[in-house]
Amino acid sequence: MSATLGGMTGNRPADTPRKTAPHDGEEAAPEASILRLLADYLRPHRTPLLLAVVFQLVQTLASLYVPTLNADLINNGVAAGDSAYVLRHGAFMLAVTVVQLAAAAFGVYFGARAAMGLGRDLRADLFTQVQRFSAAEMDRFGAPSLITRTTNDVTQVVSMLVMGLTLFMVAPITAVGGLSLALTLDVPMTGVLLAAIPIMALIIYFIVTSMIPAGRAMQRSIDGINKVMREHITGIRVIRAFVRDEHEQHRFNEANTKLTDASLRVGRVQAFFGATAMASSNLTSIAIVWIGAGRIADGTMQIGDLIAFLTYAGLILGSVMMSMGVFMMAPRAKVAASRIREVLDTEPGIRDAADAVHELPGRGELDVEGVVFRYEGAEEAVLRGVDLIARPGQTTAVIGSTGAGKTTLLNLIPRLFNVGGGAVRVDGVDVRDMDRALIARTIGLVPQRAYLFSGTIASNLRYGNPDADDQTLWRALATAQAADFVRDMPDGLDTVIGQGGTTVSGGQRQRLAIARTLVADPRIYLFDDSFSALDTATDAALRAALATDIADAAQVIVAQRVSTIRDADRIVVLDAGRVVGTGTHEELLETNPVYAEIVNSQLTLQEAL
Q: N or C: which end of the chain has fewer CB within 10 A?
């Protein structure tokens, strides 16, 4: 999470209507189909798409013309022993074949360009949409599923489009044109083809009805294995510390087995119906040869016509077989498209209002008034009627037992979630009426779990203020008590940090996260238990530096340690989501039993006083 909350805008207007995403596994709405998805995203790629269709049309017509030329060459050239006729018509056939191959190559090229462009746009819009999601939508979908939808699901749709564009003109024109030309060669034998095509169509129907549920199960299994892998990689240190390698291996094996089983179900369907279709095609060819041999024997058919008829039969049945390949891919692609649509059509819970405030009149006065909040699906509210104020130049502390709602309260202030009741105001303006970029400039949050991005220390510190110079960075590091260890690093500010900050200690990570927020220079600072990994001496030095360097800003500190917040101007005591006391350390120690119990559990009587 960044030190400040930047405005995240997508490619679509903020007020574009969206539906709420159904839970994964439910049937997608009718509009969430692959056809709608392709229609929406292929519009910018009309030119390569049109060229692909034109070249596929040329390739198909050329492939249909070659068997007729071949029959004519055999009947009138080879059978008659006319070498000149053979050479002349053979050269023409070669020219037609070259045109066919060139058209096929260009058709595939332009089709791939359209498909790859669609994939690029889909991934970009998915990323932009996820950027606009609030924490509630992120929790609803889950990180592993969002990653799968942006990668694997998009790949499924693009693969379907590449194959579909390749066969868009080929299959129907080949089938219709081949049948028409076959009729001109021999009407009775065309009945064999007409009998085979319905059988193929029935096979396609069973493929589609069988593959849709199998494809949905397979995509869910991919989500599952991504979830296990992500947790394993992220939590590798915890796994090693508790020697839970076997447990994690068992979890992975379960997820891997589910994916394997789902893939095998898909493979069995494809293998069975593929073999059935191949058998039907071969039996049709045998029937054509059997009947054709008799007709040649009685003189009602020429050998060239039989060869041409066999070629047309191969083209027709081949086009049906290729169509079957598309229909095998279509169910998985449809499921993938539906899952992508769920993300794109989900209404972000937090959006800028059309008349959002872009500037504040004051210096950063924070008022939390009667706030109520309940997580989605929860029976009980986490916060009930919470009040809190923070003024420039003052420090407001929040303390309470685990689960009291402290972190939730801090997350409501920069509008990571919308309040369910009451209001959060900055300088008298409700944060729901503020532009998110203004919230980012005004409120800086150092989260409970400090997160650093892959890159250098400097790039992480400039995350909230890209224009900050090195002097500003060093000043922030000095305040955060991080300057010394950064100077000791081989490359100083240019030292590379691993993803998540795993290449530095927990205390160093917290101090770098604090420095990142200081570089952003907001009016209101929110520290969510941001000193928990620091030793007592560093904690005290950091708080003293903050009191001097951001003396004009309002500070809200959530902490577990009484020593961290005892000098605050105002302490708010939370218990089970309610404010049960507000005052200074001395006042609360005398009048508030909840606060006194927390103090007595951490400090001796002499230390408390």
A: C
Question: Is it the case that residue 418 has pLDDT exceeding 60?
Answer: yes
The percent of the chain in helix, strand and coil, each rounded to the nearest 5, is: 65, 10, 25
Instruction: State both tokens at 196.
Output: 């085979």
**Global pTM?**
0.69
Give CA 121 to chain center in angstroms: 13
* 3 state DSSP class of 495: coil
Q: How many residues does the chain have?
A: 609
DSSP state of 523: S
Residue 465, exposed/middle/buried by CB under 10 A (0-12, 13-18, 19+)? buried
Rounded-to-integer distance, Cα 165 and Cα 174, Å: 15
All CATH 1.20.1560.10 domain ranges of the chain, comma separated, are 34-344
In the prediction, which pLDDT does 434 show? 93
If you average pLDDT over residues 305-324, what whole number do you get?
Answer: 75
Q: How far apart are CA 609 and CA 598, in angstroms?
A: 14
- Indicate the helix (H) or strand (E) that contains 390: strand 383-390
Q: How far, in Å, CA of 300 to CA of 348, rounded?
A: 72
Which CATH class name applies to 366-608?
alpha beta
Which CATH homologous superfamily contains domain 34-344?
Answer: ABC transporter type 1, transmembrane domain (1.20.1560.10)
Q: CATH 3.40.50.300 spans which residues of the chain?
A: 366-608
Residue 522 has pLDDT above 90, yes or no: yes
CB-based contacts of 225: which residues, under 8 Å, 6+ apart?
Answer: 252, 255, 256, 258, 259
